[in-house]
Every structure is written in C-alpha cells, then in structure tokens.
Amino acid sequence: MNQISRQRDQWPRAQDPMGQLFDRLFGGNLMGETGNDESSVVTSQWAPRVDIKEEHDRFVLYADIPGVDPKDIEIQMDKGLLTLKGERSSVTREEGEQFSRIERSHGIFHRRFALPDSADPDRISASGEHGVLEIVIPKRPETTPRRIQVGARTTTQQNGG
C-alpha cells in the first residue's frame, strides 16, 4: 500500500486518474479542495485558482498562474462569458534526473466565467505580476428605473381613432 501511495503522489493532479475520479464522484479531494465549479472547461489539464471580488464600481478577478508569462495568456469576452486560456510548460527533465515528487500542475488551462449584466465588457483590463493575473471588470453606470404612468383610455382611443 505504501508503494501505491508513493506512486500516486508523483503524478500531477491533472494526470492522476484516481484523484480525477474522486473529484468527479465527490466534488473534491481529501485535502478539502472542491471541484463543483463549472468554470473549468473539459479540455483543461489544470485550472488556476481564482478569487473574485465585487466592489462598488467594479469586479476584480485574481488568478494564480505562476510560471506562465502574462503575454501567453489569452483573455476573451464574448456573449457575457469571460474566458481565460493558456499553458504552463512541464519541467524539463535532464537525463539522469529523478524527481521524488512532482506536484505542480502543467499543461493547458481554460476557464470561463459568466459575467453579470452590470459588467461593462468594453472596459475590461488585465495585468499580471508575481504569478498573479488581475482582471478588472468595471460595472456599467447604474441607471435608475423609469416609472411609467398608467393613464385611463379616452373614448377616441377605445374606438380606434
């Protein structure tokens, strides 16, 4: 059993079939990470962790994407969906090197987030520093609802004239 446990620890989560099965069946793993989020696209080999904060005039999304150059991250906005795509390369192994543990995920990531109607897609901006991608999504200016007065029909309106 100890041998199996050690072998499983050597697989990145994206390549760990037992871990993926556990995630699909129980919505998380033994370490308390939840997998109920629908934002990760099926073709993803891993999903960066994100925090989304709502402020008075904007939303801010923070994504942990260390090891990925910000210029290699594709961000798109289409039909109310904000999409993040990119790839983190795996560690290059030299001949004769033997790792005792490999835990960092690598490969393609692809996440989508549905934005609320209050988000202004034309003013979204993004920047990255120290492995954290920050996407700022301004809110549209609030419009006050317009009250519509209900009036009585006049005799000429009722007769079609």
Write the layout of secondary structure elements.
Elements lengths: L1 H8 L7 H10 L23 E5 L3 E7 L9 E5 L2 E8 L18 E8 L10 E5 L2 E7 L16 H4 L3
Antiparallel strand pairs: 1-2, 2-7, 3-4, 4-5, 6-7
Question: Which characteristics define this entry?
Answer:
161 residues, 3-stranded antiparallel sheet, 14% helix, 4-stranded antiparallel sheet, 7 strands, single chain, disordered N terminus, alpha+beta
How would you describe this protein?
With 161 residues, this protein is α+β, with helices and mostly antiparallel strands. It contains three helices and seven strands, in the order ααβββββββα. The protein has helices at residues 2-9, 17-26, 155-158, and strands at residues 50-54, 58-64, 74-78, 81-88, 107-114, 125-129, 132-138. A four-stranded antiparallel beta sheet has the order 1-2-7-6, with no helix packed on it. The termini are far apart.
What's a quick, concise take on this entry?
The protein is an alpha+beta fold. It is built from three helices and seven strands. Strand 3 and strand 4 form a beta hairpin.
End-to-end C-alpha gap? 89 Å
What structural class results from the helix and strand content?
alpha+beta
The overall pLDDT, averaged over residues, is 79
Strands in their spatial order, largest beta sheet: 1-2-7-6
Low-confidence runs: 1-9, 28-35
Helix-strand pattern:
HHEEEEEEEH
The Cα radius of gyration reads 24 Å
Helix segment tally: 3
Q: Which word captures the global form?
A: elongated
